[in-house]
């Protein structure tokens, strides 16, 4: 936690970091204020003195969990020197998550999108923005690869981006529901094949 933050900001950050795994595991509906007070060892008044309501905590917790995933991906992305390597980062990063663990509770995008669906518009919107941002990033990398001649001019950036995201998130879902992490690794091999096809 950043020691340069004010006491109020440190408390807010503590609440976010401490409850992030709770929300990501139990979901918004399944997380009670008692869960939050138990996790933080703070009173209900202390929590709601820093956040307007449980939904506000859940939104901040989602952002925090997503930042953990993005940071891990970006760390590997910064070491990639080609567009091909940058796209392959997604397969490698999610394989690492599969082996070493996601943020507590699993993939925040999948968890939030599945639970929120039509029951919580704000959380659904957060998950949607995360997916669309991810899609734009992949599209930009593919377009850059096409422009540099690294990828075929016939490559389809949007279709490929959507396919990659669907494969990864679908693979996570299958691995989780069947309790078989190896399923995700097999799906990630298909992601790698999809990336390799861009150069042909």
From TrEMBL:
Q: What InterPro entries does this protein map onto?
A: Homeodomain-like_sf, HTH_TetR, Tet_transcr_reg_TetR-rel_C_sf, TetR_C
Q: Where is the signal peptide?
A: none
Instruction: Report the protein name in the record.
Output: Transcriptional regulator
- DNA-binding region residue numbers: 32-51
What GO MF annotations does this protein's record show? Answer: DNA binding
Alphabetical UniProt keywords: DNA-binding, Transcription, Transcription regulation
Q: Which SUPFAM superfamilies match?
A: Homeodomain-like (SSF46689), Tetracyclin repressor-like, C-terminal domain (SSF48498)
**One of the Pfam families matching this protein, by short name:** TetR_C_13
Q: Where is the HTH tetR-type domain?
A: 9-69
Q: Which domain of life is it from?
A: Bacteria
């Amino acid at each position: 936690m950043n020691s340069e933050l004010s006491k109020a900001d440190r408390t807010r950050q503590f609440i976010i970091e401490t409850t992030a795994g709770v929300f990501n595991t139990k979901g918004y509906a399944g997380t009670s204020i008692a869960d939050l007070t138990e996790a933080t060892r703070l009173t209900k008044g202390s929590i709601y003195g820093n956040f307007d309501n449980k939904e506000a905590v859940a939104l901040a917790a989602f952002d925090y969990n997503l930042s953990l995933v993005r940071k891990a991906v970006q760390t590997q992305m910064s070491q990639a020197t080609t567009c091909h390597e940058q796209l392959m980062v997604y397969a490698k990063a999610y394989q690492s998550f599969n082996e070493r663990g996601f943020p507590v509770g699993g993939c925040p995008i999948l968890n939030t999108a599945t639970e929120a669906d039509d029951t919580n518009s704000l959380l659904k919107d957060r998950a949607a923005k995360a997916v669309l941002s991810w899609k734009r990033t992949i599209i930009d990398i593919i377009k850059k690869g096409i422009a540099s001649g690294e990828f075929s001019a016939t490559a389809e950036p949007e279709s490929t981006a959507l396919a990659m995201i669907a494969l990864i998130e679908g693979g996570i879902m299958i691995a989780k529901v069947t309790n078989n992490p190896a399923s995700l690794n097999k799906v990630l091999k298909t992601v790698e094949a999809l990336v390799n096809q861009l150069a042909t």
